[in-house]
Structure formats: C-alpha cells, structure tokens
Amino acid sequence: MLKGHVCFIPDATWKRFESAYAAEISAFPNALRPLSKGPVEPLWIATPSAPAPKHVPFHRCVVLQFAENDTLEVGETHTITVHDMLPSPRGSIHHTMFQSWLNHATNDTAPELTAQGHHWCSIIDASAGIVSTLPHLGEEIASLHLAGRRCWKVEETWNEFQLLAQRTQAGTTGAFELHHLTPDGGPELSVEHLGSGPEPFIQRPDIGSFHRFLEQHTGTGWRPTIPLRQSLMMMLAELEQTHAS
Q1: Which of 3, 64, 185, 208 is most buried, judging by how many CB atoms fall within 10 Å of its CB?
Q2: Helical (H) or strand (E) element with 20
Q3: Alpha helices per DSSP H over 73-141
Q4: Rg of the chain on CA atoms, in Å
Q5: Which ranges constitute the DSSP H helices of 143-227?
Q6: Do residues 42 and 35 lie in contact, with contact meaning Cβ atoms separated by under 8 Å?
Q7: Where are the domains of the chain?
Q8: Contact assessment for residue 7 and residue 19, using Cβ atoms and an 8 Å cutoff
Q9: What is the pTM of this model?
Q10: Measured CA distances, 46 to 43, 76, 81, 138 (Å)
C-alpha cells in the first residue's frame, strides 16, 4: 500500500526517529527522511484535537476526522471524514456499542439494538483510500467523505459479531460445541428495492465526491474490498487489546 511513498519527519524530532528506526532506515534509506530534505512543500495531516501549526497554508493541510467521535469541521482546509470505520476509534459511540455487545455475547444475552444500520468499512480500505488521495490534493479545497458501500442492518451486524465473539471465546477456553465448528458461509447478502419495505431507508454518507476524486486521479475510484467478517474480527482484537491494557 505504501510502496513508493516517503515519510518526512519534522526536523525537531528527526534525531529521535533516526535512532529509533535505524534498522528500517538502513534497509529502506528513502522511506524516512527529515522534512527539510523534502522536494515539495509538506502536506500536514491534522485532526480536530491536534490542528496543524498556524504557519501551514490552508491548502497544505488536511483534517482527518471520524464521524462518530469528532466535532466535524468544514472550513478552509481539506477535510476527509471517515464514517462507520472498523475497528471503531476508541472513545467513539461505536466502540462503546461493540464493548457492550462483547459483554452480551460472552454472557449469551441479547443487547438492545437501537441503531438502524451502518455502512461499515475496514480501516485497511480507509487507509488505502486516504493515502491514495494525499498526493493529489491541490489548492482547490476538498471536503471528502468515505464509508462502506453496503448498508448492514444492526441485526445483521450483531448476529455476525455474536458468532465471532462466541467462537473466539470457545477457542480461548477450549469449550467448543458443534455450532462453533459448523461452517455458516458468512453473512447473507440480499437485494432489496429501495423504499419497498416498511423499514426506514438508511441514508448512506455522500461518498460520491470521494469516489470521483479517486477515479479521476487513480482510475479506480472507491472500491472497498475487505469483508465485514474480517473487519469485525479486527474489532474483536481491538476490544481484547483495550481490555488487556
């Protein structure tokens, strides 16, 4: 994913990076370099809680924010807003939801499912998409949104998460039962006509501008490929890591 990219480190912290990543720099001498050696004006990656320095030109700064836990900004800098990412950022409403779900799955109880659905996307797809946009951000300020293309009903997400959590628990304790070992083929996919059923339509975040931006500059558009099951396994690993720490 990062092949051909060079990361430039601010000069004030370069010595520390040079010491900490001496082996990597030796193997890949052009992967990490001091910012002063950069061939072009740097692009700063900021967040709402960690803004770029004031001297950075607006068009050379991109604010990366997450719809579930940030106060969203739309201003004079580039903004990339990520919706429904898995694993969910710590402290977000989705991270809290999955933590509660894990407790229910462990105790074999059912949670209260209040949300309607989500357009989940993997951090792997999101990272690849964001990295692909960075070299092409110019003076015209861009406001881009990314999310998964398919909407997963909350019941579908819970059923899949519960199955994976209980299988993980069985693998940890060795208390396997027949249903833990039976292949299920993964979550079911179905085609529904919009507006044909009694359930309310779940509006997808506007990913059109992000798709068109990538299509124009990379020729591929926004085409996430990581399955929901793999993303939920990463979410489970994140929850276990949070619990361990």
Answers
A1: 64
A2: helix 11-20
A3: 93-107, 123-133
A4: 21
A5: 154-173, 178-181, 208-218
A6: yes
A7: 1-39, 43-179+203-244
A8: no
A9: 0.77
A10: 10, 13, 12, 16
